[in-house]
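Deliverable D4.2, example record:
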Amino acid sequence: MGRKENIQGIIRHKKTIDDLLEQKNRQLAHRFGLRLEQYKLLIQLKEIIEEYKGGKEGPTVGEIAKKLNKSQNTMSEQITRLEKKELLKRGRDSKDRRINRVYITKKSDELLENMENQAEKTYLAHSLQKLSDEKILILHKCLEELLDCMKS
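Output generated by the structure prediction step:
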């Protein structure tokens, strides 16, 4: 097989891996009573909320919407659905009672941690464990080089 065919094969394999991970994440989210989109949004929200003022104060729906490049109405609806599942909560701003801020709940933290642990155990890490140490080392080095090429 030539260089061009090998590159095309790598691209196909990467797409297949992405599709398999997406499918596994969808199944995992479903097991925990979430849609995949809600699971992904919860991960993004956790990062945004933790980054926002060091996690001491939650962002507003508008600030989250801007950060995720979504409309405020869409974001508000999605946050309300997660709030009904007790995964997020809204609270009044301490200085301006007209402003509502969004916070991650303890239930959400526990759910995400549990899902992350299951995800690691169930597919990607489990699949990599089946490779020899030598192949893992080669794959790791090749992926590092590819990342370096993509960043430059």
